[in-house]
Amino acid sequence: MSCLILIGMMGAGKTTVGKELARRRRMRFADCDQAIVARTGVSIPTIFELEGEAGFRRRETQMIDELTREPDLVLATGGGVVVTPLNRELMRERGIVIYLDVPTQVLFERTRHDRNRPLLQVENPRQRIEELHRARDPLYRETAHIILAGGRGNPCNMVRQIEEALARYKADTCRP
Ligand SMILES: Nc1ncnc2c1ncn2[C@@H]1O[C@H](COP(=O)(O)OP(=O)(O)OP(=O)(O)O)[C@@H](O)[C@H]1O
Ligand SMILES: O=C(O)C1=C[C@@H](O)[C@@H](O)[C@H](O)C1
Ligand SMILES: [Mg+2]
């Protein structure tokens, strides 16, 4: 089957839920952020320091392109994947794109103690999350085939909701 691609803000649960989804469906799993770290041998904050956000975005596009060439993959993307138009096009072409739409307050609670997200290392991370969420939400929506309210329920619960949504999506798209 084609790739299942999870998109959404930092802290939406793409990595956590994606791993469990892949395990349940016996598919391969990849995380774009982790693949970039593995390839470069340095952390994401270091890539931002050395190459700026633009450098990171170029690596992200290259990695999305490579990873989605093979089917049977659950792909957890980075939170900013949709800001690059080519990524949006590639993802829609090569997989079923699922947007985990999580309220800002929940995103803030989940990310507040994690230093690994350079865009949130600012004086007011809550406000930054709100700004990014507002700017990106329309892009997540235009890219996604499936949109799920992902704020409630533990990761296993989210996986169940994704599986139900996939079944509905497939039934709808197969109808003559
Ligand atoms: N459904 C959930 N319920 C409760 N906690 C969750 C849920 N999903 C994720 N978390 C927790 O929230 C934090 C962030 O999750 P995760 O790293 O999976 O987000 P992400 O969408 O991959 O973020 P990023 O875009 O920065 O990679 C983790 O500590 C994870 O354990
Ligand atoms: O929201 C973003 O722009 C980012 C999210 C993370 O997953 C990483 O891809 C990186 O920190 C940038
Ligand atoms: Mg992640």
Automatic annotation (TrEMBL):
Pathway: Metabolic intermediate biosynthesis; chorismate biosynthesis; chorismate from D-erythrose 4-phosphate and phosphoenolpyruvate: step 5/7. Catalyzes the specific phosphorylation of the 3-hydroxyl group of shikimic acid using ATP as a cosubstrate. Pfam families: SKI. It is found in: Cytoplasm. GO terms for cellular component: cytosol. Binds 1 Mg(2+) ion per subunit. Mg(2+) binds at residue 15. It comes from Thauera aminoaromatica S2. The keyword ATP-binding applies. It comes from the Bacteria. Belongs to the shikimate kinase family. One of its GO terms (molecular function) is magnesium ion binding. Its EC number is 2.7.1.71. Keywords: Amino-acid biosynthesis, Aromatic amino acid biosynthesis, ATP-binding, Cytoplasm, Kinase, Magnesium, Metal-binding, Nucleotide-binding, Transferase. Its cofactor is Mg(2+). Monomer. The keyword Membrane does not apply. This is Shikimate kinase. One of its GO terms (biological process) is amino acid biosynthetic process. Substrate binds at residues 33, 57, 79, 136. It is an enzyme of class 2 (transferase). It catalyses: shikimate + ATP = 3-phosphoshikimate + ADP + H(+). ATP binds at residues 11-16, 117. Its main location: cytoplasm. InterPro entries: P-loop_NTPase (IPR027417), Shikimate/glucono_kinase (IPR031322), Shikimate_kinase/TSH1 (IPR000623), Shikimate_kinase_CS (IPR023000).
